[in-house]
Design goal:
The chain is an alpha+beta fold. 26% of the residues lie in helices and 29% in strands.
Amino acid sequence: MSTKRSTTELRVHAVELYRVFLSLTTYYLYPTLSYVPMERLKQAIAAFFDFLQGIVAIAAVMVMIYLFIMSPQEISGSSMTPTFVNGEFILTNKVMYRFTLPKRGDVVIFKSPKNKDVDYIKRVIGLPGETIRLEGGQFFINDVPLIETYDYNKPVFGESYMHEGDQIIIPEGQYFLVGDNRPGSSDSREFGPIVLEDFIGKAFFRYWPTTKVGLVKQGTYKLFSQ
């Protein structure tokens, strides 16, 4: 499952609004300028530029927030069903992993190893240095069964990187990520662990649909302290 970036769409809408504004200004304001006293015209122009400066300042703040703090993402696909479904919108915390390491159960956004321009969303189940094995449709971490307490779709089977019965040591600085829709997810079972440098951030808030608005719950496990 991938997520769609909203930057391009916001930029297009902003350009269209600007064009509409210019058209309305040209049509309604310019023909009447000759009838407006010079002092009132100066005041109007000054007020307009004050307003414009405010808009530019707000836009600059929004860009900074988008680039460095958090960004909206659209869920595209079904690999995280039932946790997320196609068409939902979430916010990604982009600053968190600069100060703390990902935990087991985190839902993360990262750059696809197949195409760095595409973002994927998966769940962390394996941490650096751990041994992970898939056997009988069950993940084992350091030979201990991983008992997941959240809903996920079964069956769980191997892929091209991790086959049934394989035991893999996760390299330092890398994480084993899987989708909650195990039969329909392209994840670390196929392309291997993901380096921390490719993490964009942690999914922390769902804002659409309105019936599901709220914080994204942390995955928990029996026998593990995360």
